[in-house]
Amino acid sequence: MLELLQIFIDNIAPILLIAAVGYTIGRRLEVDPKPVGRILYNVLSPALVFQSISTSRITGVEVAQIFLVMSLFIVIMGGAGWLIMRGNNRVERASVMLCATCANNGNFGLPLISFAFGPEVFTRAVIVFIAFTIFNYTSGVFIASSGRKSLRQAALNVLFVPAVYAAIAGIIVSFAGFTLPPVLARSVLLVSQASVPMMLLLLGLQLARSAALTRIGVVSVGVGLRLLVSPIVAAALVMLVGLNAPATVAVIMQSSMPVAVATIILASEFELDHQLSLSMIMASTLLSPVTLSILIFLLRRWNPALAL
């Protein structure tokens, strides 16, 4: 119990404190999270992605394995949400499916993994973040639209995700062994270092827009899939594919994060229940410190060498 408490204090409490600052600013100063999100989306996150990949030793085979695991994960979790909610109305079913498949592995996952595990795990967590981002703009859109928008049209959204291009550039630089000029390398490094604290402030700003919980029964199903079922499915998949230890930890951790704030965007655009999506985000974020502390404890016991 003491070790779990220490894990919470060392790794999750800093995230909650910084997010609380964002929450307070959002409430008192009424700061709009959209401009902050745009800066993070278009500048800071791509810099983090490029910096992490270009300076890593991850192989193309490992990247392909991670994407394979994540694609299987999305199919399984989406299918589980559909099966459980097949008797409910279309809006509730789509909301739970989004909850099950869209994890907050940017604002929440990357900072937490940077605190709890070493750089090898963090680099692979960035790859998982990219995979989730791509799936959010394809399968997530497809689920939210409930068939009103073709998968081909949804897939085209990937062409407008800056982090994807940053990942491609990072892979090219890493594999070619190219060294950036100091003026570029230092600029990218400085911008990338700003991404994690900005992610946490943005998380607080976004949560400040949340209201009271609603539809507890439906929310419980979505949150249960997101926080309890997801790590089990992810663990089974990494064993099936045979990922190495750092990638295994990255995939399991990132797959177990609370519901992504991106689900609000999808819910608004495709006329789902906006308040239901907010309730799932709020409930999963509030409960995740418990489940994630236990998960960090178990993964550190499994491979102590990866712990910071």
List keywords for this structure.
79% helix, 0% strand, 308 residues, globular, mainly alpha, 14 helices, Na+/H+ antiporter like fold
Brief write-up:
The chain contains 14 helices and no strands. It is mostly helical.
Order of helices and strands: HHHHHHHHHHHHHH
Our Rg estimate from Cα atoms comes to 18 Å
- How many domains in all? 1
Q: Give the tally of β-strands.
A: 0
Q: What proportion strand?
A: under 5%
The global form is globular
Mean pLDDT: 85
What percent of residues adopt helix (DSSP H or I)? over 70%
Stretches where pLDDT is under 50 for at least 5 consecutive residues are none
Q: Report the major sheet.
A: none
Can you tell me the CATH class?
Mainly Alpha
Going by CATH, the architecture would be Up-down Bundle
CATH level-3 fold name: Na+/H+ antiporter like fold
How far the N terminus sits from the C terminus, by CA atoms, comes to 19 Å
Q: Which structural class best describes the helix and strand composition? A: mainly alpha
Number of helices: 14
